[in-house]
Amino acid sequence: MTGAPEFSKGVPTAAQRRPIPPFTDEHQQLRESIRRFVEKELAPHAMEWEDARWFPNEVFTRMAELGFLGLKYPEEYGGEGGDYVHDAVLTEELSRCRSGGVAAGIGGHIGIATPPVWKFGTEDQRQRYLVPAIKGAKIAALGITEPDAGSDVAGIKTFAERVDGGYVVNGAKTFITNGVRADFLVTAVKTTQEGGHHGLSFLILEKDYEGYEVAGKLEKLGWHASDTGELAFNDVFVPEENLLGDENQGFYLIMSNFQWERLLMALGAVGSMERMIVRSVQYLQERTAFGRPIGKFQVLRHKLAEMAVKHEAARDLTYHALRLFADGQDAMKEVTMAKLASQRAAFEVADDAVQLHGGAGYMKEYEVERAARDTRLGPIGGGTDEIMKEILGKQLGL
Ligand SMILES: Cc1cc2nc3c(=O)[nH]c(=O)nc-3n(C[C@H](O)[C@H](O)[C@H](O)COP(=O)(O)OP(=O)(O)OC[C@H]3O[C@@H](n4cnc5c(N)ncnc54)[C@H](O)[C@@H]3O)c2cc1C
Q: Residue 209, CB half-sphere, CA atoms under 13 Å: how many?
């Protein structure tokens, strides 16, 4: 993941190769410290948290203590003064924690819900929401999807009516990561009757506002440790100081946030693919059949080679997109391509890992089963594969 996956003996390890830009030796040090944390404090609990359908909120406070919730945020808000590339390291390393749900819950907070507060928030909003979020004292969620509006973001129906001193919000959100535990929700609402591209705005809603209800916790194929919530808003009064960004400019906020979300998903997929390859190599070396390690069967070696090529191709595209994004360039095309190339590939690699493990691959105790379920979300969440292709088709002039 530093540009030198630790696949097996004979392949250069991270220690022998220089990090691939935009990563530097400084990022490498951060990577090692996050990796130690993930291996010691997250991975050993993955199974327990998956079974419990929940990971403790203390994970956030512990990560805050270590400075990991605020890597890219300025020190004046309690952050570490780093940038997006530091968060990219964190995202790759979190994908080693053996639970897509834990990585998603943390990612929902750091990667998609707090960035708009930092980027578009007033000083007062940053103090009230970003500072406690970086401390792990308040947990955040991003609420865009609704029962009738997912890919078609412009179809959002939740309505915020202008009243004296603020808004009254009515509507519902669904599939919201951290939706059950979140103390505040950065959410998209209609602020004109028409809604759509020029009629959406963002509001910050607090869980204890009257009329804000966590209507359900959804059961899922994967990401079991994360809480995916359904939310209902019944005449929720939101003070006007909680308008995030300009009124009726919410569509642009959504689009700008998507870039980083999609890049994070690509980075997570790259990390997950590497992990699947490492696990498979180990298994192919250890497991014997017909008197030899199964890795001696050419067909399995070839499968592994294909997995490694998928990983490498997705990683190179993702790092390319990350370099452009971190450099402040327009990276829409590359980010979209990276998301598209990495998500289905990660699922296929996890599925291949299940196959290479035989019956063991279908068992819970081998993490490949979980990875196959967890990675299935990739081609759906954060914009489906079909939507990525639509974006690229338009970019190509159609
Ligand atoms: C576990 C999980 C966590 C999530 N977390 C969050 C979160 O934290 N916050 C949040 O706001 N959302 C979240 N989502 C929602 C997620 O972003 C949406 O599910 C996703 O964008 C797809 O929207 P949809 O489910 O409404 O599917 P739909 O839009 O109904 O799509 C159904 C199918 O139609 C296809 N389709 C739709 N439009 C087109 C088109 N124009 N051309 C071709 N095909 C099309 C889609 O690709 C898909 O195959 C989460 C979802 C899941 C499953």
A: 25
> Quick one: tokens of 388?
């990525």
Ligand 1 neighbourhood includes 177 CB (under 6 angstroms): yes
pLDDT, one tens digit per residue, over 185-216 is 999 999 999 999 999 999 999 999 999 999 99
Q: pTM surpassing 0.85?
A: yes
Q: Which two tokens stand for residue 29?
A: 């040090």
262 Cα–ligand 1 center, Å: 13
CA distance 142 to 256: 14
Find out whether 307 and 276 touch, Cβ atoms under 8 Å: yes
What is the rounded distance in angstroms from the CA atom of residue 71 to the CA atom of residue 48? 28
Task: Catalytic residue, from 50, 261, 334, 367: name it.
Answer: 261
Q: How far is the CA of 174 from the centre of ligand 1 (A)?
A: 10
